[in-house]
Amino acid sequence: MIDQLAKLVENDLSVFSLNYFSVILGTSPSKGARSPLLWNKVYAREKKNVKMVPLDVRPENIKAVFELLESEPKCLGGAIAVPYKETIFKLIEDQLPENVKQIGAVNCFYRQIKGSKNKFTGTNTDGEAALDPIYNIINDRPITIAVLGFGGAGKAILSFLLKYSHKENSFYLFNRTRPSKINANIEFNLLNADNLGGKIPYVDLLINTTSVGSSLSKKQSPLPIELICKIKKSAIVYDIIYEPKYTELLERANKLGLKTINGLRMNIIQAVLAYGYTNDTDLSKEDILQIMSE
Ligand code: ATR
Q1: What is the number of the ligand 1 atom nearest to the C-alpha of 85?
Q2: Of 85, 159, 176, best ligand 1 pocket probe by most atoms within 8 Å of the beta carbon
Q3: 60 C-alpha vs ligand 1 centroid, how far in Å?
Q4: Residue % of the chain over a pLDDT of 90
Q5: Ligand 1 pocket: which of 173, 211, 240 to mutate (most atoms <8 Å of CB)?
Q6: Could you report the per-residue pLDDT of 13-54, keeping only the tens digit for each?
Q7: What is the 3-state secondary structure (H, E, C) of the chain?
Q8: Which residues form ligand 1's pocket by a CB distance below 6 Å?
Q9: Closest ligand 1 atom, residue 177 Cα
Q10: Structure confidence by residue, pLDDT tens digits, 99-122
Q11: CATH 3.40.50.720 placement within the chain
């Protein structure tokens, strides 16, 4: 099984000596994904002969790789990076709980019964984790929240915002393409300068969930630079990107004296939650966070 797997991934697989392993699936997670570093610190502390390994998978191989992992008793599950959150969702949709089905994307998959070979289910820890650094801001008083992007992370975050933030908050969603389905409490606008320019002055919290500004498109901003000065002085700009730590959007907002939050906290919290879902562990969430933060 592992031999077959090794032929379908682009990087070297080193899982032969392990009792169990978890994976991160993506097109090139071996080139800098943060989850293996975080998860492997916890495995080491638990003194387990288990490791998280990155699997660089080409789109044409992702289904076969996932099926091999499911039938490999040593595989516990793991994390899913861009662009496979929606692909894997479709492969395990019938195994998912209703609230995850509504998001349409998963970033974590795991055995339905831990420690045995059975079907994978999954969840999306992005939404829960993204709210962690803004929980007070979104619940203190009614505010206007603009979300840029409606990919896997954007959908997860909006679904959690609707459920766990002040019931009188207003929501603008901006995306490059029009979604086929959207909650009635959200006002949708295409992501362009005209639409943004009209709404930005009313926004109290701006959340970027698009990939614009990440290491693949550094120095780009999802909000045209000339519109950043239209944001209220009291507003908060939150970019869920963590690499680079300060995206072009955050750097410009910082220069204007706005309060900014980057994606580092969300990234570590989603890893804490995903580790807990995937692994049979006696550690509490606080313990896992502590170890991952060291
Ligand atoms: P993730 O799981 O991290 O959310 P994703 O599902 O690939 O990743 O979603 C990426 C988001 O960034 C989407 O909202 C995408 O817009 P589309 O739905 O129109 O594809 C957005 N995005 C990516 N590149 C973009 C660009 N150059 N300009 C604007 N939006 C972009």
Answers
A1: 2
A2: 176
A3: 21
A4: 88
A5: 211
A6: 988 899 999 999 999 999 989 999 999 999 999 999 999 999
A7: CHHHHHHHCCCCCCCCCCCEEEEEEECCHHHCCCHHHHHHHHHHHCCCCEEEEEEECCHHHHHHHHHHHHCCCCEEEEEECCCCHHHHHHHHHHHCCHHHHCCCCCCEEEECCCCCCCCEEEECHHHHHHHHHHCCCCCCCCCEEEEECCCHHHHHHHHHHHHHCCCCCEEEEEECCCCCCCCCCEEEEECCHHHHHHHHHHCCEEEECCCCCCHHHCCCCCCCHHHHCCCCCCCEEEECCCCCCCCHHHHHHHHCCCEEECCHHHHHHHHHHHHHHHCCCCCCHHHHHHHHHC
A8: 82-83, 85, 105, 149-154, 175-177, 191, 209-212, 222
A9: 19
A10: 788 889 999 999 998 767 789 999
A11: 128-265
Residue nearest to atom 26 of ligand 1 (CA): 212
Q: Output the pLDDT for position 284.
A: 96
Superfamily of the domain at 128-265: NAD(P)-binding Rossmann-like Domain (3.40.50.720)
Q: Report the top-level CATH class of 2-124.
A: alpha beta
Indicate which residue's Cα is closest to atom 5 of ligand 1: 151
For the chain, residues classed under CATH 3.40.50.10860 are 2-124
pLDDT of 152-165, one tens digit each? 899 999 999 999 99
Q: Which atom of ligand 1 lies nearest, measured to the CA of 179?
A: 18
